[in-house]
Amino acid sequence: MTEDLAAQVRALLDDDLSRGALKRLARDLDADPGLRDAVLAEATRRGNPLPEDASSWPGKRILRRARARDVEAMERLNPIARDEDFTCAHCGADVPAHGRTARDHCPHCLRSLHVDVVPGDRAAGCGGVLDPVRVEPAGGDGWRIHYRCRTCGTERRNRAILDGDPPDDWKQIVALTAAVG
Ligand SMILES: [Zn+2]
Ligand SMILES: [Zn+2]
């Protein structure tokens, strides 16, 4: 890819574009397979790969999907269940693996680490501490903890672990149900 094309692709994925500009770009994508391939490659590089048949999608759909940076789009992609012992980067607690599901946050302070693009892939270069910002019901009797990265501001969600040894700190979960953020 030439530098010019790379810059064009970055602008296309990053800039706050007007609807009119997006429409024009979608037409450019329809007309230019080279640009289409470059956009798909850049989306993959960013950890947001599109499905294999995306090169035959209309430009509008490619743009919408490639520009989506929401957590849902990330979580959809092949999570890898990793369940390992770790030392909490925030409170220093030694946290044992759960044994059945991935233990991805500290049960004592609820902090996690921004290390994954897709859960378990360890592809995020950030490594910042993920602070819990609020909690919401997650179907059944589960809870989902929403996180924001202290370093880069990325938002993440993890399921609370209530059946672990130890389980997540219930007082903090309850306090976070009332938080807005
Ligand atoms: Zn901790
Ligand atoms: Zn981060």
Give the SSE map.
Blueprint: H1 3-14, H2 19-31, H3 33-45, H4 59-67, H5 71-75, E1 86-87, E2 94-95, E3 112-113, E4 129-137, E5 143-149, E6 155-159, H6 170-177
Antiparallel strand pairs: 1-2, 3-4, 4-5, 5-6
The structure holds zinc ion (2 copies).
Residues 88, 90-91, 93, 106, 108-109, 111 line the site of one zinc ion.
In short:
The chain is built from six helices and six strands, in the order αααααββββββα.
Structure keywords:
181 residues; alpha+beta; 4-stranded antiparallel sheet; two-stranded antiparallel ribbon; 33% helix; 15% strand; elongated; binds zinc ion
Q: Give the uncertain stretches in residue-range form.
A: none
How many H/I helices?
Answer: 6
Question: Which bin fits the share of residues in helices?
Answer: 25-40%
* Beginning-to-end CA distance, first to last residue: 40 Å
Could you say how many structural domains there are in total?
A: 2
H/E element order: HHHHHEEEEEEH
Radius of gyration: 19 Å
Strand order of the largest sheet: 3-4-5-6
Portion of residues in beta strands equals 5-15%
The geometry reads as elongated
Explain the overall architecture:
The chain has six helices and six strands. It is an alpha+beta fold. It folds into two domains: 67 residues; 92 residues, no CATH class. The chain has a four-stranded antiparallel sheet, with helices on one face. A two-stranded antiparallel ribbon has the order 1-2. The termini are far apart. One zinc ion binds next to loops.
